[in-house]
Amino acid sequence: MTDSIKYLLDEQHLPTNWYNISADLPTPLAPVLHPATCQPITTDDLAPIFPRAIIEQEMSLEREIEIPKPVRDVYRQWRPSPLYRARRLEKALDTPARIYYKYEGVSPSGSHKTNTAIAQAFYNQQEGVKRMTTETGAGQWGSSLAMAGALFGLEIVVFMVRVSFDHKPYRRALMETFGAQCIASPSSLTESGRAVLATNPNSSGSLGIAISEAVELAVQRDDTRYGLGSVLNHVLLHQTVIGLEAIEQMAMAQDYPDMIIACTGGGSNFAGLAFPFMRECFQRQLNTQFIAVEPSACPTLTKGAFAYDFGDTAHLTPLVKMYTLGSGFVPPGFHAGGLRYHGMAPQISHLAKLGFIQPRIYNQLECFAAGIQFAKAEGIVPAPEANHAVCAAIDEANKCRINGESKAILFNLSGHGHFDMQAYMDYQAGKLKDLEYDHNEVALALSGLPAIDAALRT
Length: 458
Known about the structure:
The protein is α/β, with parallel strands linked by helices and 458 residues long. The chain is 41% helix and 16% strand.
């Protein structure tokens, strides 16, 4: 085992293919259904929303999908991203655990989201699309697509969840610097937004609502398509560059993870790190643990129902089988805005249902405490979302100290918190509190799950 702190790959080691876990699932995913007919969706059904290349990736069962050269050329600006050994944190915790983190905050937008934003912008530009619409929670995805749009000459319209729009003006400023239009959601620009405001003029918004607005706007013009930052197969596919690099970097460290940890909102950064390692576990029968960490205020995997549901609040999207708190559920306005989503990626939900992924929940205050502890040791301030992974990694390292075990812990530090300092200021001032979801609201949202034929619900 080496005594290095960072493990760097040169550009020649940038992956040439994304990894598609659909090819290796022990059992296939449940089909995606058309919202009107409840029949399996076709490529033509998705054509008003996505470009053809993205639709093919969404439905593909090919194990490897080539990364186009123009996408790889942009990736080269920050990829391969570094893998760090958290030696100062290990010392501070007095733990025999070996803690590693893959740092995605080195991308121009400050998070892992850029990996799929570049790919989606490229495929849309190649098919003659002029404008893309999208949603964003914490602003990391909106920032990433705004940057990608600038690089590929696309107009970008971002519906930003209202609570984050208010909390994070600098994320909005970053999007606008790249030339994107950033709109607080729910807005009065769409029917779905107006419907929410009619019921609750002070709505804090949700990713489900913002998705509805973005999709509604996208289908109104032939030159416009929709871009999604998480959840669907093609997004998770694009993120696998993270884990593919990390496998090589762990080999450089002459080590291998006993557990892999990442925060989960829609699932993209978790899948990006975990899926390539999961393939190795399938092939080599390894016992690596995969821990998906989510906020106690929006515990989709731990408290949700595994059922068909809409990806958005206005029911404009196809039906997917996933863990869900109900598409009508609006989570409390906690600071990890990127984790405020009612559903979980179908691939992750499927693997969790099969027992390959262990979900775990933490509350807001303990995550910020962990993030500050990490920052003091490692010198990097994590995004509030990434603090959930940090919190779980510290917990596992403390267990190693108590049990006298030396385990290798690898987590995804999915983004930096440089645009989230107001949240840290509020935490230090004692203004934050732990928020819990409303059980009655979840029960009401789940009672409205679509009635799908019994044969499809198995």
